[in-house]
Every structure is written in structure tokens, then in C-alpha cells.
Amino acid sequence: MLGFLNQPAGFDIGETGLLVFDAAQPLWRALLVGLGNTLRVSLPALLMACLIGLLVALGRTSGSRTWRALGGVYVDTVRNTPLLLQLLMWYFLLIEWLPDSTQAISLLPGVWLSKGGLAFPWYGPVEAGAGWAWSWPQQDTFNVVGGAAVSPEYLSLALALSIYTGAFLAEVIRGGIESVPSSLMEAAETLGATRLQQISRVLLPQALRTIVPAATNQFLNLIKNSSLAVAVGYPDLVSVGNTALNQTGRVVECVLVMMSVYLALSLSTAALMNWFNARHALKGPA
Length: 286
Description:
This protein is of the alpha+beta class.
């Protein structure tokens, strides 16, 4: 049934990450590159969404009316607009507003942003057998050369997933923070703990027991929502799978392969989160 995966792919993939691929390699290798691209965008977006969610939740539970209002506007705006439209908005903003590669913007030393994507320093092999070394991007006459780079398609997808999931996580984290008795923070303050120490050593460890079960659903949604990459042309698993489907005509088989991969990813993520939750769950009566 899956023997067709050994036939040559017959198509190239524009963005392959750390994997090397050409059209003569088998279809299973093309799908592996697509899976790598899915993970390459999902994992950084997951970390960024957690950071955004934490900062917004702290703002919404702070004593500042301004921060509470800003957090509320962000959550209400992002949660109530479709992710697909947000993805398209970020994509068109990047390709319309960014300068050409000949006039890239220097964000930090060695970090350049342009219509060609985001270039950054990278540690990797220089030549075959020549060892590894740092490569720093530099503005050349026609392009930014050196280092590594991610495409505008990657950036727009990572931004959309991070900001969209961050809004949902903010509410989950806010609920966890509000479940922690205020007496614990008052006790820590009495003992002389700074605000940062109160948050990192008292508030968040206690809130995690409430946050983790609900956050698991948002993590699973982010991974599955990465399949919207096909809308901006980023070659994730679904995009590569669709190309393989059209090339071979094996519609049911290709769809089953993609569904199986997403099922495995979701079950693995859920198992990891359940393990983490079990380690931090309250033992005995609260």
C-alpha cells in the first residue's frame, strides 16, 4: 500500500532546513523534509506563544489599569479573528513593507531583515571535511550572504501561530495565576522576596498545576494549525503531501500518511505534557 513512497519524488522543495533534498530522492524523504519544516516552525512558535501568554497574563493581573486594558484589547482582538486571515496579513505585510535584499535592515549585529527573509549567524560545516565554524551574514551588492536565513513565508507563519496561540495561553495562564491564594505572595513579600522572586519562586510554580492541563490543548492546536502553511506557500508536511498526492494520484494513501504523522505528533505532545503534569501535580489533599 505504501510502496509508492519509494518512487522518486520528481519535484523540488524550496525550503529544506537542515535536510538536503533533490527531486531524485524518494517520496518518503520529501515527506520527511515536510515534517522537519513543520517542527521547525512549530517549536519556536510554541516557545514564543508561551512567552507572549505569560507576559500578557502578568499584565492582565497587575495593578496597572493601562496594562490590564492593553492585555484585554490584545486577547479580544486576536482570539476573535480567524487565524488564516492573521496569517495572510503578516505575510502580505512582510512582502509589501520590507525592503529588497539589496537594502536589508540591520536589526542587530549579524541579523538582517528584508524581502529575502531573516538572516542570522549560524554555526555549521564550512566545507566537506573542513570542520565547523560560525558564519556571519553580510550585506553584499545583490543580497545578504553568509549565515543562515528563514523565508518570509516561515516568518509570517511563525508570527501568526505565536500571536494567535499566545492570546489563548494568556487566558489559561491568567486563570492559573488567579487560582493561587494571595496569602502566599504576601508571605513571600513579608520574608523580603523581590517582585521577580515572588513571581518565579512562588506564583508560577503554584499556578503551573492549573495551567498545564489546559495549556496542553493549546499546544496541540498550534501544531495542527501549522498546516495552514499551505496558504502562504511554506513547504510544511501538508504542502509537500499535497504535491506528492498530485504527482502520484494516490489520494487516500497520502492523506492517511499525513493524518498518521499529525496523530503521532499530537499523542507524543499529550504524553509529554501529561508526564510533566504528573510530576507537578499536588500529592494528597490540597
